[in-house]
Design a protein that fits this description.
It is globular, with a radius of gyration of 24 Å. The longest helix is centred in the N-terminal third of the chain and has 18 residues. Helix 5 packs antiparallel against helix 6. The chain has three domains: about 35 residues, no CATH class; about 100 residues, 2-Layer Sandwich (Enolase-like, domain 1); about 260 residues, TIM Barrel. Helix content is about 35%, strand content about 15%. It is α/β, with parallel strands linked by helices and about 450 residues long. A hairpin with a 4-residue loop joins strand 2 and strand 3. The strands form five sheets. The protein has an eight-stranded mixed β-sheet with strand order 9-10-11-12-13-4-16-15, with helices on one face. The relative contact order is 0.13. It has 16 helices and 17 strands.
Length: about 450
């Protein structure tokens, strides 16, 4: 493709780039160098959607969207979700231009839902951003409006221990390796084998399938003292300079959550996470008003509308969307911007492969009130091998560098992914059975 044809394909008047035009020749050449010369973005069309499954227990589902110009983009159904969430949307996007991301998103977003049910919509949205970036030759953060930071602060999942000395040493190792933000679990698991620590109906502590307000589980003063002693030991080992967030308290009702929150306020934690299900806004208002530690929730909320009530009632201090549930890159940036209007900051939940990780990195780079991004697989050697195109290790001294390469900035390593599959023959196998799925989807007359 020559210079004139490339500019035409990019949808820009060549007159704008003349000697007396808006951009210098050097700028034009730079744009040409970044753009995919084999792609004509305005004529790009989706031709296929395929899925690959990694793992057999807690599954990871990657999708690949192919086009008529040989470009492919990658997305991921949220960890633990079903590939069906993405596959049944295939027929609805075939033939569409993936560069029209918002148009595609608006067409498919009615088919998403909270938690894993948002996984298909978000996976497709991710893959479209990847494709648009590759077609136009720019990174996703640039298409989102530019970046506020060049590297993204990470906090990582750390294996729990009921022994505070062991847990403290594990967290201290994180700090020694460069992490500047930590998170740990302080919950009912510390109390189950201690007589007199909890009061609960028989068998209720053996299930996690009943929502918090309906369990009848209560914590005693003895149980609160166990939590306090545990946290005091952790602070003695870690010190007070490093932020530590708390998660996985257990399915306590709001009154006992307030008791726990007040008992642990003295340790100056970064936040209390998901103490009750996110939809109980009024309970979050009670909790936030009862303690001095920031309150956080949001990893299971789909779309910015799901956050609106929490924001308007000032029920939380920090929102915590998971990009693979919340609606993808653009919707999550909108959530962050809406939070900022209400004086609320944003952390990002993330428990996926490097595809979701880097989608989150681009979004975090482009969102002003972002604080920190979660990572569940820092200790897994196989994790970094799944993708190419970025610096390794991906996490360096507690940060991920924001890529400047087109799209998400990563390409899949087929050999490494196949090592994580039960059957290597299923690597992005054809899905023609989903090509002709049709229904009258319009919800108005």
């Amino acid at each position: 493709m020559n210079r004139r044809n490339l500019l035409k394909a990019l949808g820009v008047s060549t007159a704008a780039f003349g000697l007396n035009g808006w951009l210098a020749t050097s700028d034009v050449e730079a744009a040409m160098g970044r753009a995919n010369r084999n792609s004509e973005p305005s004529a790009l069309k989706i031709t296929d959607l395929r899925v690959v499954q990694m793992g057999t227990n807690w599954r990871r589902m990657l999708i690949r969207i192919d086009t008529n110009q040989g470009l492919s983009g990658y997305g991921e159904v949220r960890d633990g979700g079903s590939p069906t969430y993405a596959l049944f949307l295939k027929s609805r996007i075939l033939g569409m231009n993936p560069c029209n991301i918002d148009q595609i998103f608006r067409k498919i977003k009615p088919f998403g839902g909270h938690a894993r049910q948002g996984g298909g919509v978000c996976a497709i949205e991710m893959a479209c951003w990847d494709l648009a970036g590759k077609a136009w030759g720019v990174p996703c953060w640039q298409m989102l409006g530019g970046k506020f930071r060049d590297e993204i602060r990470i906090y990582c999942d750390t294996t729990s221990s009921i022994d505070p000395q062991v847990m403290g040493k594990r967290l201290k190792a994180r700090v020694d390796s460069g992490f500047t933000f930590l998170k740990m679990d302080v919950g009912i698991g510390l109390l189950k084998n201690i007589p007199g620590a909890i009061t609960a109906p028989s068998g209720m502590t053996d299930t996690s399938q009943i929502k918090h307000p309906f369990t009848g589980i209560r914590i005693t003063e003895k149980g609160l003292k166990v939590f306090q002693d545990y946290c005091a030991t952790i602070r003695d080992i870690i010190g007070w300079e490093i932020p530590i967030a708390l998660d996985h308290f257990g399915h306590f009702g709001i009154e006992d959550c307030i008791k726990i929150a007040q008992a642990l306020d003295q340790f100056n934690f970064a936040w209390y996470e998901d103490m009750v299900p996110w939809e109980y806004t009024d309970q979050y208002v009670r909790l936030k008003q009862s303690c001095k530690t920031p309150i956080l929730t949001g990893e299971d909320i789909y779309l910015k509308e799901g956050f609106k009530d929490l924001f308007e009632k000032k029920a939380i201090a920090i929102c915590h969307p998971d990009l693979a549930t919340s609606g993808g890159l653009l919707e999550t940036k909108k959530i962050g911007d809406l939070a900022m209007e209400h004086g609320i900051s944003m952390a990002l939940h993330m428990a996926g492969t490097p595809v979701t990780l880097f989608a989150s990195v681009h979004c975090a780079a482009a969102t002003e009130n972002f604080i920190v991004l979660e990572h569940h697989n820092v200790d897994d050697d196989w994790y970094d091998t799944l993708v190419d195109g970025v610096e390794k290790p991906i996490v360096q001294k507690g940060y991920v560098k924001v890529p400047n390469t087109p799209g998400l900035g990563v390409e899949l390593n087929e050999e490494a992914i196949k090592k994580q599959m039960k059957d290597k023959k299923d690597y992005f196998k054809p899905t023609p059975e989903w090509d002709a799925e049709r229904s009258w989807d319009r919800h108005w007359s």
